[in-house]
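We close this part of the discussion by returning to an individual protein. Part of our work consisted of pairing the sequence of a single chain with a tokenised description of its backbone. No coordinates are needed to read the tokens, only the vocabulary itself. The amino acid sequence and the backbone structure tokens for this protein are reproduced below:
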Amino acid sequence: MMTWHLDDFPGTWALLQQSVRRAFDPATEADPQRPCTQEVSLIVREACHRRWAKELYAHLVDELQAQADAVVARCAAEDTVAAVAAAWRAFSAALRTIDAAFRYVDQSYATRRDQDLDSVRRVGLKALRRALEARGLYEPLSAELVRATRLRLDGEALARCRACVACLQALDWYAAGRCEKGPYLEELVLRAARDFYTREAAALDSENPAEYTRRVVSALNDTGAGFLDAAMAPLLTSIVEAHLVAPSIRPVLHNGLGAVFDGALASDPVALPLLAQLGALARRGGALVDLRHAVATHAARLAKNLMASAPDGRVGPRALELLEAAADIAARAFAPPPAPVGDAVIAVNVWDALARPGHPTTEEEDWGAKCVTEAVAAALNDDVRGARFADCVARAFDDTLSSSGDFDGLLVLFRQCRAKDMFEATYRADLGLRLLRHLTQLGSEEKLGRERAVVKDFESECGAAYVAKLEGMCADAARSVTSAEAFRQETSVVAPILLTRGHWPAYPESPLVLPPPLQRARSVFEAWYVAKFQGRRLRWHADLGTCAVDARYATGSLSFDVAPAQACVLLALNDGTRVARAALASTTGLDGAALDGVTASLVDAGLVVCEDGAYAAKRHRPASLVIAPPRHNPAAPLRARVADSVRKDRAYAVDAAVVRIMKARRTLPAERLVADVRRALVHPASESDVAGRIDSLVDREYLERDDGVFIYLA
């Protein structure tokens, strides 16, 4: 280290000035005769000890301004960004050296409380700022940086932009916090982003969700612009949300979500991710309510189309498929984003990061599935009384249980069925016929157990009172097995099934005339029953049972089960003669559609032939035997009477609700009374239904109407 003699301030400053100029001149070669940075700092310390700090500070301010002007002049170019980036790189590198060498000036003079002057670094930055202002570079630089936020920059261009941003931040030309003049870069970028995304929102196609999502994804991914301050990303993101997403997401949801949802139902691989992106954008655009409305509206439209196009026998399975598929899609596509862990958010991609702290959501965990389920249920039960859907669900249960299928999925449909009384009446009519079939087939214990299991599920959903008659029917079926075993010791011709009249549907009287062997067996059972049970009356429904027939042909024998009406026709033709239709009707007691349905089923099975209106049994054993039930179902009128019986029961329920409410309130306006009654009912009812029953009570003098107000008459 060399020793430098400091005789006076001019000589000292001349030495220091040379060191400053060498720092700003990168072409200057190292000179061992000149002081290094460490030696310069010692010289500065010694000068300050000699009380030259004030003069040294003043000369350094002028020198830094001159060097800043020179640096800016050397880096002048047509490209403002390149010029400022080069000037900043050169000046900031030299300024670091100067700041390290003259740090003692800051400590001993500039930053003292009684002086309140700028530090050496601050002096250099202000000098560079004045140099840039003098050449008018701030405005064109800001404009070029704003344009660059919309461009895809390569490595060198990105580095130059980052250098310019660092320069503006150092010169207090970037953000509003310390800026002395405006508009600063941050404001210009945000203003340009607002204008740009406002125009973009107006140009987006709401009918094309895929293109819409692609463009918005690009906007969200470009919010950082690659070179701006990290704090700008959330500001630009908020601009995208407010000026691009919020104004445009609602039309996209209402116009385009349905097609995407249909694609997901059709297993389109891109539809489900697209739905998830639309859901994320709806959160960012404050359109969760619109998203739920669009999902519910489309799900309801699908359900209504199903009810309009599907036959009654297929409504249940198709509704279950739609409900499960749509709910699963909505649950997966619109699941809320993961919750924050500490101060961080678990984010796999930009869509998971959409709901970050500062953008709270109030979503339920599985709102998508709930929304779809409620909308589909409302559409399926769209008719005021909910009769058709209840009937279709009961048919689905009947088909499944008759074929020993799995009924667990059908319980979902049962929960969505609002006309539970209509379902119970229809289900009871079908349950009776199934139980009768089970009792005449092998393995009846297992099938009866399945029926009881379904009834238990209904009980867990609706209570014991709802399934009282259904449980009574199952109990009757179990008791019938015991009574049949006891009577079988008397005769093996028949095995009667005992039904309790209060539990079972009111089956129509049968006109079927039993053949003599069966009539004798019936008489034997009546005598046996009267001897065991006193005071009970038997009413026979011969057409509801099953007959086991043994047929013997010249080529072999055949055993099969048929309905009682089919067995009576076969016995009437057993002697081999041809019997005219009128004589056959007289012998069996069947006529009209009932007789035609029975004979047609036997002709189709190859057991009977019909020629010129006369019937005869075939002489040869059929090669294959498939006997369909009679086309005219003797229990079919039960379904026709279900709606009428349910309507009567509902009328009684409405009357009871009106009287109960009026007895408690004494007087009520008409609108309030109708609303209270509809809330009190367990079955769906329209205002006209309730108003009609109220008028009936007025006619029967339970109520009195006085200027729109009803008065209870005790």
Observations:
- The chain has five domains: 9-190, 228-380, 387-505, 509-626, 637-712.
- Residues 341-362 have pLDDT under 50 and may be disordered.
- The two ends are 120 Å apart (CA to CA).
